[in-house]
Amino acid sequence: MSEALESEQKTNPQGDPITSVAAPKADAKKDPHAEAKRQKIVTPEYMFHEAPRTKEFITGSEAAKEAVRRSSVDLAIAYPITPQSETMQLIGVLYGEGYVKEYYRGEEEVGVMAAIAGGSRAGVRCFTATAGPGTLRGLEGIASWPGHRLPVVAMFTCRVVNAPLAIQPDNIEVSYLINSGMIVFHAENQQDMFDFIMAGFTISEKNDVTLPVGVCCDGFFVTHARGYVRMQDRGLRLPPREAWRGAVPVLDAENPPARLSRDAPVQKSNFMAYNIHAVWQQEVWAAVERSRKYINKYMGGLLTAENVEGADALIIASGSAAAQSREAVRLCKEKGLNVGLIKVRSLRPFPTKELRELCGKAKLIVVPEFNYVGWLAKEVATAIYGFSKAKIIGGPRVYGGQSMPVELIVDEVESGLTGKKSTNVAMSQIMGGTVNPDEVAHFMRSI
Amino acid sequence: MSLDYVKFSNGFEKFMPKEYRDMVEHGPFGKKISVSQMGSFKEVLEEHPMCAGCAMTLFIRLAMIAFPNPEDTITVGTAGCGRLAISQAAIPFVYGNYGDQNGVASGLSRGLRLRFGDKPKDVVVMAGDGGTADIGFQQVLHSWFRKERFTTIMLDNEVYGNTGGQESGMTNRGAVLKMAPLGKKFEKMDMVQMAKVAGCAYVATVVPNNPRRVESVIKKAVLIAREVGSTYIQAYTSCNIEYAIPTDKVMEDAKTVENDRYAFSEYISDEAKQYLTERYGYKEFLPKPAAPAAAIPGKA
Fold first, then answer.
1. Quick check: B255 contacting A, CB < 8 Å?
2. A251 to chain B: which residues are within 8 Å by CB?
3. Are residues B197 and B289 in the same domain?
4. What is the mean pLDDT of chain A?
5. Is residue B108 part of a domain?
6. A118 closest CB neighbour out of B1, B49, B105
7. Whole-prediction pTM
8. Residues of A with CB under 8 A from a CB of B
9. Do residues B178 and B192 share a domain?
10. Measured between beta carbons, which residues in chain A are less than 8 angstroms from residue B76?
11. Does B110 contact A75 at a Cβ distance shorter than 8 Å?
12. Is the pLDDT of residue A166 over 90?
């Protein structure tokens, strides 16, 4: 590589051209948007199922950038993110290169989420990313997107939100997102990040869906670390948003507005107001249900199952916990334990039917999580109640930024199967149809 | 194109409600109308649930008559009395979350520009003093600093009217209201000065008892926001309920307040003057032959 080329590319302190945050320097002879303009629009079917892919070793933030590059995004609004990941500054580079049409740094998350709502109402494709405290700061806006039926893709790179202050991974913020009415995916790795974001745009804008999609991952583990990502050619992009296609008209003064936008007094206290609000919420959640077929079509299912048939125990996990669980399955095999793994990719809609089928014969289910409250264990227990007699171990759990040693997961599989003393899961987190207090006495009595 | 949705589909005319037919046949869409013609055309806002004698409603009606392209205008608001009327108008209204109107308008106006290019799609924020100066303050100021191209109108009744009469940042010092049991302890916020500091291209204060003036400032503000930058109008729109103003004295009160603290003021940047003159044929900013150019502020 020539000296001149190097100094031109390496604009950030780390000197890494891939993560450079500056837009390409203007060259009078060369159109900086030339490459973006040459992108070819292909159908989602071709993009997801047929287009040849090449493998690159990149971070989760870079995977998000590459997904946005191929997704015909019109408007991206950035905030340095509370706390920070590189994602939105990398999207800024795409703006400089012409892949994203409009971009600005907002004042903070309340303003950013409001502006994203405005952009989506204008009928353009919108993207933003935030994390932990930023998610909660913007939550009033985020939680209103489903009700306003706004197609948007937002990336949540989950971080600690409670005191004492920390900036480490912890996905407790997901526990509200899954109850907001939006579609929520949980990415295990950089590849998921890439695939789920692109599929997210396609699914969120389907007429019978018309909902925001949240793509979550566990911060740092996915955003800052590198992994192999198989990507389609960057000269391809998804079809742009068609504003007329949504279930609710956009606010462009080209179409009669939806009554929802016109009738602010829907919240007044009378039966019709309650009724309108109730049916509207029902419809939001019905739209979440209707997204299942598109998740199956474009993402290959709401979950993936490995070695479930005939397994002694199942581990059910999402996000980074799924990655750790895969390694735990391998360690268990060395110990002679035959363990299966179910990775939940879509938290909303939740793969209830799939889990009921897969867990019908299971004796033991272990649900490791990166948060204190165990939202996934509760979801799993609720989904399979009455359909499985498995003992469910809600744990192990790490939080506040800890990574999860795979041995912790192995320990719980052993505790559940053999009665080995558990030092990490409280008795109160043992669930299931056949739990006998004497049989789980080896779990912790308090935590 | 947008006018199509206020036209009848062939054969449906006789089945449409009278209100709708009046709007198509006698409404302001695609026509030039003026406040001096009030009563002779169908207004986009007529029926509303506002209190008797509400000055804010009069102001909103006047503002909507003044919109240069009502058929291509989208209003954005937040919680407060104003949206109870604004949401009943025959133009699209975005009612988002608490105090997020200037954030929503930022994304909306940028998105509409991406889709419609130079074709005007006017975004007008109308929110109360609480929504603008208190809960929405940060987004309001930042939208101005970013020079977002839409109009912000504050409906200033100097109180939280819709929630039952609590002190707001725009309440006058000393006023005894809910949450100010000993009287408000600090001054009315100077949002006009802040708008100028934040770089608004046009800033005006008005009261509703001069319809022609309201019409003039709204028109200028909306036109300037199309290309030059942010514009801000602060209107005194009294709350006759919380301030116990007799219904028949509302206009009298507006006059008193105009003389006391709401004198008409208008700031317009040089760029905006040039834009109005060249693009829309405004004559008032042309140098007057008798006066030397140096006498015009900012042109020294």
1. no
2. 74, 92, 94, 108
3. no
4. 90
5. yes
6. B105
7. 0.92
8. 74-75, 77, 101-102, 104, 106-108, 110-124, 126, 140-141, 144, 148, 243, 251-257, 261-265
9. yes
10. 118
11. yes
12. no
A9-13, B42-46, B100-104, range with greatest mean pLDDT: B100-104
Domains identified in chain B, total number: 2
Of B88, B92, B102, the CB nearest to A257: B92
Which residue of A114, A117, A253 is in closest CB contact with B92? A253
Do residue A64 and residue A153 come from a single domain?
Answer: yes
Cβ within 8 Å, pair A124-B115? yes
Same domain, A119 and A196: yes
Determine the distance from the C-alpha atom of residue A340 to the mean position of all C-alpha atoms in its chain, rounded to a whole number: 23
A173-187, A289-303, B30-44: range with lowest mean pLDDT? B30-44
**Cβ separation B5–A254 shorter than 8 A:** yes
User: Which stretch of A5-9, A150-154, A155-159 has the lowest confidence by average pLDDT?
Assistant: A5-9
Q: Do B115 and A252 touch (CB under 8 A)?
A: yes
Residue type, B96: G
Nearest CA of chain B to the CA of A146: how many Å? 12
Q: Would you call A261 and B88 a contact, using CB atoms and an 8 Å cutoff?
A: no
Residue B228 and residue B158 share a domain: yes
Quick check: A82 pLDDT over 80? no
Q: Distance (Å, rounded) from C-alpha A194 to C-alpha A198?
A: 7
pLDDT in tens, A102-151: 999 999 999 999 999 999 999 999 999 999 999 999 999 999 999 999 99
Q: Using the beta-carbon criterion (under 8 Å), do B114 and A102 form an inter-chain contact?
A: yes
Q: Indicate which of A110, A112, A266 best probes the interface with B, i.e. most B CBs within 10 Å of its own CB.
A: A110
Residues A193 and A61 in one domain: yes
Domain tally for chain A? 2
Q: Which domain holds residue A98?
A: 31-244
A342 forms bridges with which residues in the sheet? A305, A316
The answer to whether position B1 is within a domain reads: no
Instruction: Report residue A4's pLDDT band, with 50, 70 and 90 as the boundaries.
Output: very low
Q: Do A55 and A179 fall into the same domain? A: yes
- pLDDT single digits (tens) B186-211: 999 999 999 999 999 999 999 999 99
For residue B140, which residues of chain A lie inside 8 Å, CB to CB? Answer: none
- Mean pLDDT score, A271-298: 91
Average pLDDT, chain B: 93
Give just the sign of the alpha carbon dihedral B288, B291, B296, B300. positive
pLDDT at site B8? 85
Q: Are residues A193 and A65 located together in one domain of the fold?
A: yes
Q: How far is B74 from chain A (nearest CA, A)?
A: 7
CATH of the domain at A420: 3.40.50.920
